Amino acid sequence: MKRTIVAMPGDGIGKVVLPEAIRVLDAAGFEADYVNGDIGWDFWCNEGNPLPQRTIDLLAEHRIGLFGAITSKPKAKAAAELNPELQNKGFVYYSPIVTMRQHFDLDLCIRPCRAFPGNPLNFIRKSADGGFEEPNVDVVIFRQNTQGLYAGVEWTDPPRNVRDALASHPRFKPFLDVPGEDLAVSTRIFTREYCRRIVTAAFEYAQKHGYKSVTVCEKPNVIRETSGMMETEAAEAAKRFPDIQLWSTNIDAQMMWLTKNPEDYGVIVAGNMFGDIVSDGFAGLVGGLGFACSANIGKDVAVFEPTHGSAPKYETLSPSIVNPIAMVLSACMMLDHIGETEKADRIRSAIATVIVEGRVRTYDMLKMTGGADVIAKGAATTQQVTDEIIAHL
Ligand code: NAI
Ligand code: MG
């Protein structure tokens, strides 16, 4: 059966890298129809809605999305750039990504951070004898994607009933007399069902892919209720996976130790914000934004996207200089998800060969500062990297 994929390029370099990923998918023999899904800044400016209903309908129908990146700007800029005809009509900018995750309940976010041998951006560390060693980083982060600090339940000047509820907690005492307009509250809500879903997914993945440990990365000694619930559910899940060790680290300590022994970690599981932080930390060890891919998976719908944003300063460079690998690896995660693992593995091994051969590299891999001049200095264009991957398929 031929699949239909909702292709949502978004803004900036999202429009550059998504077509490159589709070229690779085609070359790997993946047969699909692609329908375009509108998302991002242009749709905010022109329609007052960065995630139009027609895109939501397409995702609901076809259930698989490939997404590039979007541009977002602070409140005041968003209001100012809105089409004059739409101004003062009650349109308020919101994040289309967070909204998409919440609308389709894409609660499982998976962010693999695997070093490709030969990548000059791989983390190296000094060894005791004064030499250098390159640890083999192979970590997969499972981040709860819909709850916690990013759920959006927050106020400046909370309404009376919210203040009263907060005041019923003894620890609210120091805040009792703070004027409303000077009081900001962002809630961190976890539910047991969603803690259970993310930790179970993490253990199942560890088992399927041969990882020896699952690490819960939270802060249960201080954030006792929410982090505590995640820890409790991880311990429950661990009983069903006796061959996999359950480790626990605090997010702050994990970031400090990140560079000491990253090779010891396998699967890491965390709530929304700590998962966001720890996944960026590990991504930095394996090449950074040009390599960081992700999957957002719900019960019905799944969306695959690179972690990077729209890098607007590179949008109009011709030829394009950005690294397409993060987007192509995200497309591989899509193939894994729909059972096309052979094609995904073939693409990943073509990428691995391109990296180790080192003849065709974008500016980031050559440690250049980005700009129009990098091509003249020997960096490959986005399209050349894609061509090289395709040539190795
Ligand atoms: P960014 O990820 O767009 O860019 C940061 C820097 O990383 C760029 O200047 C560039 O040097 C480098 N970079 C990013 N992708 C690259 C690639 N594929 N190859 C080589 N180098 C790459 O983040 P920034 O500049 O903070 O935000 C730009 C816009 O993107 C903002 O409007 C922001 O809100 C949005 N954004 C969107 C995200 C998404 O769509 N998921 C995530 C992060 C930011
Ligand atoms: Mg992030």
Fold and architecture overview:
With 393 residues, this protein is of the alpha/beta class. It folds into three domains: 1-112 and 294-393, Isopropylmalate Dehydrogenase (3-Layer(aba) Sandwich), CATH 3.40.718; 123-151 and 190-285, Isopropylmalate Dehydrogenase (3-Layer(aba) Sandwich); 153-186, no CATH class. The chain is 37% helix and 18% strand. The chain has 13 helices and 14 strands. The chain has a ten-stranded mixed β-sheet, with helices on both faces. A hairpin with a 5-residue loop joins strand 5 and strand 6. Helix 1 packs across helix 11 (325-337). The longest helix is centred in the middle third of the chain and has 18 residues, at 192-209. The mean pLDDT is 97. 1,4-dihydronicotinamide adenine dinucleotide binds at residues 69-72, 97, 289-290, 308-312, 322-323, 326, 364, 370.
Layout of helices and strands, plus pairs?
Layout: E1 3-10, H1 14-27, E2 32-36, H2 41-47, H3 53-62, E3 64-69, H4 75-81, H5 96-103, E4 108-114, E5 125-126, E6 132-133, E7 138-144, E8 154-156, H6 160-167, E9 184-186, H7 192-209, E10 213-218, H8 226-238, E11 245-250, H9 251-257, E12 267-270, H10 272-283, E13 293-297, E14 302-306, H11 325-337, H12 341-357, H13 382-391
Parallel strand pairs: 1-2, 1-3, 3-14, 7-12, 10-11, 10-12
Antiparallel strand pairs: 4-7, 4-13, 5-6, 8-9, 13-14
Helix pairs in contact: 1-11, 1-13, 7-8, 11-12, 12-13
Portion of residues in beta strands equals 15-25%
CATH class of the largest domain: Alpha Beta
CATH superfamily of the largest domain: Isopropylmalate Dehydrogenase
> What average pLDDT do the residues reach?
97
**Structural Rg:** 22 Å
CATH topology of the largest domain: Isopropylmalate Dehydrogenase
Secondary-structure-derived class: alpha/beta
Contiguous uncertain segments of 5+ residues: none
The CATH architecture name of the largest domain reads: 3-Layer(aba) Sandwich
Shape summary? globular
Distance between the termini: 23 Å
Strand order, main sheet: write it out.
2-1-3-14-13-4-7-12-10-11
